[in-house]
Amino acid sequence: MSDLLERLRGRGWRLTAQRRVVAEVLDGDHVHLTADEVHARAAERLPEISRATVYNTLGELVSLGEVLEVSTDRRAMRYDPNAHHPHQHLVCAKCGTVRDVHPAGDPLADLPDNERFGFTVSDVEVTYRGICPNCA
Amino acid sequence: MSDLLERLRGRGWRLTAQRRVVAEVLDGDHVHLTADEVHARAAERLPEISRATVYNTLGELVSLGEVLEVSTDRRAMRYDPNAHHPHQHLVCAKCGTVRDVHPAGDPLADLPDNERFGFTVSDVEVTYRGICPNCA
DNA sequence: GGGTCATATTGGATTCGATCCAAGTCAAGA
DNA sequence: TCTTGACTTGGATCGAATCCAATATGACCC
Q1: Which family does it belong to (chains A, B) (predicted)?
Q2: Any atom of strand C under 7 A from CB of B39?
Q3: Contact B133 A121 (CB under 8 A)
Q4: What confidence tens digit (pLDDT) does each residue in B18-69 have?
Q5: Around Cβ A37, how many Cβ atoms within 10 Å?
Q6: Is A135 on the interface with B (CB under 8 A)?
Q7: Full set of structural domains in chain A with CATH
């Protein structure tokens, strides 16, 4: 993740303690934390960090393409640091657990021209739902 | 949509003026209204209908499988009466317009067993994003 | 038609996630 | 070290959705 910090610095990001901590919190494999969870973990290291800053930083990381926003339910948005490896999500309908998955095929290619209605289609998002082994 | 009302009556639904109006509002082709929009349209016919009742009724229709909930952005949930014909959604990233689309292939079948992690996968939801002709 | 009762409706309060804002703080270049 | 524009803060605010106790009403029975 220090790569990430370097990359952002190169783009003129001012490196603050708060941003560093948020980036470190996200630097786990396969985490899909809510903003509040990110805030809680960040606050363990930097007790005074505010929610607003966590939201700001997450928003910046998203628009820089370093983190993905995924909305798996009607509750809180989740933040996925695995932005540089295309993947989709498998969500447990009971406990909300999220796993990264890699379906075969290219869903974008599966949308024929006559089903695009003149849209310039740039992105597709696939969410699988089911029951995880723990909840079954 | 009177089919719908009959079907629901058969399941013990008590048929009230409010529920009838909500069902009628949803009885349009390819509409993807928010709860507030449903409420506004319902209120044209039945001025005293409350938001709470609209939410209740929509929730019931969803759990009865007669209407689909689609969350196309981080804003309000949308309600899709086209529940009996499998389809996916194409969303304009600018204006939010939603169109029903029918991609080729079966995304469920595209998720291999070794990518299911023991989940019982029951459903998949595909959202295409792009820019519509009007916004381009 | 009238009575009964379980179910539905109401609107105001409440929750929860997210955003906004003005005031204070601080990283980084000179 | 100084300066400055960008960053952070926490409290207010917003918007969607849910909850609740009081009231109203559809459906069934006679």
Answers
A1: Belongs to the Fur family.
A2: no
A3: no
A4: 999 999 999 876 789 999 999 999 999 999 999 999 999 999 999 999 999 9
A5: 16
A6: no
A7: 2-80 (1.10.10.10), 88-130 (3.30.1490)
